[in-house]
Design brief:
The chain has 241 residues and is of the alpha+beta class. It has 8 helices and 8 strands, in the order βββαββαααβββαααα.
């Protein structure tokens, strides 16, 4: 059976002398593993770049339910994040977000709203000329809603502490240790209620940005127990420190 869909590249590894296995998130079939033959030959060099994280391709692949890895038939570029990969800071963000998504996106079912959110975010980062230092935090804040654990908005200013365990803002520190102090909580409240455009106006020093990032990753790890260590995190923190 042939499946035709749009796919976001998450990660790829070498397979055999000339092939690669690509992890993708598709609009119509969720997370998929695809074998791409002949991608490591000399003639295929110009296509290899298309399988970097956050490229968006139109794909047709052979699907067989009994196989865990499907075979890619053909592909073409749907959206090339060319500006991301000519900018060191943007490319670090892209690698980081792809690593997060590789870990958290597991379902082999369609979720058009989630796919469209990720696609729109890639387009925004690609086109953004400045003021994107907070983008990765804003992306994770928005992603939490699609994964089912977005905290409610902080409706009252006296709710000064973000309870990571219960996913809400509370007026006094909870009895457990999984909460953010009032400063970090105030910043996170802004991110959880902001668009990508509005996140640009949240002023953060490098060290404070890293503390907010570590807190939201901790929040993810609490609600997604299978979240692995993010290898690109240290590089990203250094870039935006």
């Amino acid at each position: 059976m042939l499946h035709k869909t749009k796919a976001i590249i998450l990660h790829h590894i070498k397979y055999s002398d000339s092939g690669i296995i690509v992890q993708v998130y598709t609009r119509d079939y969720g997370r998929q593993s695809l074998m791409v033959r002949g991608m490591r030959s000399r003639k295929s060099g110009k296509h290899n770049v298309l399988f970097q994280p956050m490229f968006i391709l139109d794909m047709i692949y052979y699907y067989k339910e009994s196989r865990s890895i499907q075979l890619l038939k053909e592909f073409s570029v749907s959206q090339s994040p060319a500006e991301i990969y000519t900018d060191v800071k943007k490319s670090c963000i892209a690698v980081f977000l792809a690593e997060i998504l590789t870990t958290v996106l597991k379902e082999e079912t369609s979720n058009h709203e989630l796919f469209d959110y990720i696609e729109g975010a890639i387009r925004y980062l690609n086109e953004c000329e400045s003021g994107y230092a907070n983008f990765h935090i804003a992306f994770l804040a928005g992603l939490s809603s699609y994964l089912g654990f977005e905290p409610g908005h902080r409706n009252l200013p006296e709710n000064k502490y973000f309870d990571l365990l219960n996913g809400n803002f509370v007026p006094v520190p909870p009895q457990h240790s999984a909460f953010a102090d009032s400063e970090i909580s105030d910043i996170l409240a802004g991110f959880f209620s902001s668009s990508f455009d509005r996140m640009r106006s949240i002023p953060l020093t490098g060290s404070l940005r890293n503390e907010v990032l570590e807190t939201i990753i901790r929040y993810f790890s609490i609600h997604l127990p299978g979240l692995k260590k993010i290898n690109s995190l240290d590089v990203l923190k250094e870039i935006f420190n």
